[in-house]
LacI family DNA-binding transcriptional regulator
Amino acid sequence: MITSRDVARLAGVSQPTVSRALRGDQRVSEATRERVQRAADALNYVPSETGRSLSTRMTKRIGVVVTDLTNPFYPHLIGPLHDELEQHGYRMMLFTERSETAVASQRLLDRSIDGVVLATATVGSRLPDDLQRRELPFVFLNREAGGQPADAAVVDNELGGRLVARQLAELGHHDIAHIGGPADTTTGRDREMGFRLGLSEAGIGLPEDAVRRGPFDFDTGYRALTELLAGPTRPTAVFCGNDVIAIGAFNAARAHGVRIPDDLALIGFDDIPMAAWEAFDLTTVHYDLAELAQEAARLLVQRIDDPDDEPRRTLFTPELVLRGTHAAR
Amino acid sequence: MITSRDVARLAGVSQPTVSRALRGDQRVSEATRERVQRAADALNYVPSETGRSLSTRMTKRIGVVVTDLTNPFYPHLIGPLHDELEQHGYRMMLFTERSETAVASQRLLDRSIDGVVLATATVGSRLPDDLQRRELPFVFLNREAGGQPADAAVVDNELGGRLVARQLAELGHHDIAHIGGPADTTTGRDREMGFRLGLSEAGIGLPEDAVRRGPFDFDTGYRALTELLAGPTRPTAVFCGNDVIAIGAFNAARAHGVRIPDDLALIGFDDIPMAAWEAFDLTTVHYDLAELAQEAARLLVQRIDDPDDEPRRTLFTPELVLRGTHAAR
DNA sequence: ATCGGTTCTCCATACGTATTCATCCGGCGC
DNA sequence: GCGCCGGATGAATACGTATGGAGAACCGAT
């Protein structure tokens, strides 16, 4: 393996000079810098990231914690996140939070990363506390965990739910159902809360047996809608906790011969690109997903640069996108 | 920061003993091991991954190179890949190969990873050569790059294309089109080649203006089908280079009022979960995507353990899944 | 010629862990 | 009581880079 010593020997300088020259330190003369650069090129030298990390105590790596990668929602966060982090000189390590075991959190705490993006926080989670105790900077993306105030890039989920409620009320719906995300996620909880508030402002109730909850995935929507259709009072409208659930519900509707939007209005949340496909043409709640991820990256990078700043929470304002899956009653 | 020295001091032993004790080295007595373990627990000690890497010259990290994360295909590779790598004690770093600049490949060659999974190889790419020159183990996943023989987990794309051709021939189609992937990918090339061969065996031609090519994404399918529908001879069947293209084409068909499968047969490739959704019910070429990714992980881990083994190429056999997007002419 | 002040380079060392080799100890056989 | 053996531990060092402070070389001014 080629080290900075080899380069130093070839260039006839010391190892520290190589280190400084290649990083553009002003204290190295132009002539020396060129000589070193030539030697480095000749040897195809690439500085060891590990050596550098040990010395600087920075790894220039960020851990990103998600649960299920195959959920179509996350790639739309991870993609922009990756690019934004790269722009700031950071690379991305992926972690799945399947089981929040001690072992798993060890892997975050072994100083192999400079910070963490929590994209799938749950309300009871101990992970944020662990990170705080270790002084490992982190930021919430999309969901929060309650508890201590911390950096976060999130959507005004309550407002989003409220917008949907108003729209459905305006369209004349009364028998309304909700297929929401898990109760221990802020996205699940707040969207439902806003929806309930919006409905009650319009004088519409949301009985508990018209509410289903589950993971933010296709199956949740598929199964829950199947159940709702089999129930005593068929809803005429369903608000889904996110687009992936809505698309699950959409497919269940099709499987049961229920026409959308004539028989059933369906509204999602997130406006992932798939929602706009002709096959679905899903009415949903829009916000800038890429911008959300980028903001999280920026917040985290700033936190790393300045650990003692006040926590900052960026709240994105959602808006309703009216497409083809809603209709008047 | 807590180091092994702190643990050593508290336990009343030397630093090397801490290192040995915590890793279960047999040469440490049971009594000492317990004492060290208690001290480590008391201090919440987590060994520094960086220090360890510098010493062992292994990082237990694998780089995964993809192009576009938001393409719905890749998550189905990355998810199982992540899990399989984790089982072998490796973590995953994500790289995007947007521009194959020198800088980008530096990031792979700085010894911050023990191996690379190339999921989006292109035929002309210099990257595999660079890796080989640096003796950095790598494996091709899904696509190959031609050139030197190397470890690879791939599907028999030619057979897959041939299966589709036979099926369409059997259904009586004559005016057939193909919307394929890029010509510089083995998946694009070989699927098209197999398709051509299969068609010609059945005495059916595939004129060049019935073939469109582009990235394996939604837009390629959408745009290409729109063009084909506007052409002089409308095809009655289209074979798409993968499911994502097929779903793009599906949506274009819907946008133009073309009924599937009555007006147009549509066949994809990969059988990603989305293909089975009722909304699409896509006839496609199936293989075990998760197993493919896992095999790539296994091949890479073995290569790392044994750098001088013969290169191994695992070829998965695809089969046609008949769903609802094909019909007899 | 001496001095002060730059400018450039090097020496020494730090970072945290793993490993090689030496050492120490007790126990055993003769 | 001597030597030997094996088990357990410690001292020294390696891994590759970055950095603080010291030193060398050079310049211009006096």
Q: What stands out?
A: Chain A touches chain B through 50 residues (CB under 8 Å).
